[in-house]
Design goal:
GO biological process, one term: intracellular zinc ion homeostasis
Keywords: Ion transport, Membrane, Transmembrane, Transmembrane helix, Transport
InterPro entries: Cation_efflux, Cation_efflux_CTD, Cation_efflux_CTD_sf, Cation_efflux_TM, Cation_efflux_TMD_sf, Msc2-like
Radius of gyration: 26 Å
Strand order of the largest sheet: 1-4-3-2
Number of domains: 2
Number of strands: 4
Largest sheet: 4 strands, mixed
Shape: elongated
CATH architecture of the largest domain: Up-down Bundle
Helix content: 55-70%
Order of helices and strands: EHHHHHHHEEHEH
Number of helices: 9
Strand content: 5-15%
Distance between the termini: 29 Å
CATH class of the largest domain: Mainly Alpha
Membrane topology: Multi-pass membrane protein
Main location: membrane
CATH topology of the largest domain: Alpha-lytic protease prodomain-like
CATH superfamily of the largest domain: Cation efflux protein transmembrane domain
Length: 316
């Protein structure tokens, strides 16, 4: 058994940093265009809702406008990150390009939502203590327009597999749509009941939606930064060990560069009678079915993985 040499195989899936059939690059271009279009649409919506909130006295509409502004800025950041990652950083200084900009942008996006919550709650408190009259007709018209913008943006983003930034935009848009609906309901409620504090209460509910959106983004990007394994390690390990020619999986690691690029390394103890190339291919196939885009598989004889593992990780 000891005369069996260690064998290493590397495999890259399509769409990783320009490798393969280019599908990933095409999706990256589409993602970039979608984010740019949504950013432009939401900037227009922000201007309309801001003017309406200031002119017609609705803090709920004003809070929705601020929400839309931060969303638009977030989309601009996501667009910039996607554009740069797709076109720069492809030389040897960046092994996987600049795709880390995607989770970085998403994390900053989520963090920017939190101070907005404080502003909305402050304004809502002021209006709760001292309610003001709301111009129902114009406020309602602007809120409906905001809802149309949100739904149009959702239509642009939704469909197929979304990147982390697109998912972030999607969550924002759902929150925006909910905010617009809440504003519409609150305006009608104030009009027909005369209870003005409904407006600041609605603003507070919108703030809660924003907190939910921020949490989704921070968790998603944080998992990538902290190298959380993107699949069930034990299940994948068991599947590999069921593969013909595999004695044991000595080491298995997986992490993500961004939401669209998953990396994995596997150290496998193999039957000495197994064909190295065929076995490596089978292990790669298992990893590929678990959405791994780039994998490195090392084979060694049974019982020798401990020595190889220590050698590979000994940095003294």
């Amino acid at each position: 058994m000891s005369d069996m040499p260690a064998h290493t195989g590397e495999q890259e899936g399509g769409g990783v940093g320009g490798h393969g059939d280019g599908t990933g690059h095409d999706h990256g271009d589409t993602s970039t265009r979608n984010l740019a279009l949504v950013a432009a649409i939401n900037l227009l919506g922000f201007l309309a809702e801001l003017a309406g909130g200031l002119l017609f006295g609705s803090v709920a509409l004003l809070s929705d406008a601020i929400h839309m502004l931060f969303d638009a800025l977030a989309y601009v950041m996501a667009f910039a990150a996607s554009y740069v990652a797709a076109r720069y950083g492809t030389d040897d200084r960046y092994s996987f390009g600049l795709h880390r900009l995607e989770p970085l942008s998403a994390f900053v996006n989520g963090a920017l939502l939190l101070p907005m919550v404080g502003f909305i709650l402050y304004e809502a408190y002021q209006r709760f203590v001292d309610p003001v009259a709301i111009a129902t007709g114009p406020t309602l018209a602007i809120a409906v327009g905001g809802l149309v913008i949100n739904l149009l943006s959702v239509y642009v983003i939704e469909g197929g597999e979304m990147s982390l930034n697109e998912r972030g935009a999607f969550y924002h848009l759902l929150g925006d749509a909910g905010g617009s609906i809440a504003v519409i309901v609150s305006v009608l409620a104030v009009e027909y009941t005369g209870i003005r504090i409904i407006d600041p209460i609605t603003a507070g509910l919108i703030a809660l939606v924003i907190v939910w959106s921020a949490g989704k983004l921070l968790r998603g990007s944080g998992r990538i930064f902290l190298h959380r394994t993107p699949f069930d390690t034990e299940a994948v390990r068991a599947t590999i060990e069921e593969t013909d020619g595999v004695e044991r999986v000595a080491d298995l690691h997986a992490w993500q560069i961004c939401s669209e690029i998953t990396i994995a390394t596997a150290h496998v103890e193999a039957d000495t009678a197994a064909d190295d190339n065929a076995l490596t291919r089978r292990v790669h196939d298992v990893l590929a079915t678990n959405d791994v885009d780039h994998a490195t598989v090392e084979l060694c004889p049974p019982g020798e993985s401990g020595h190889a593992h220590l050698t590979a990780h000994d940095h003294r």
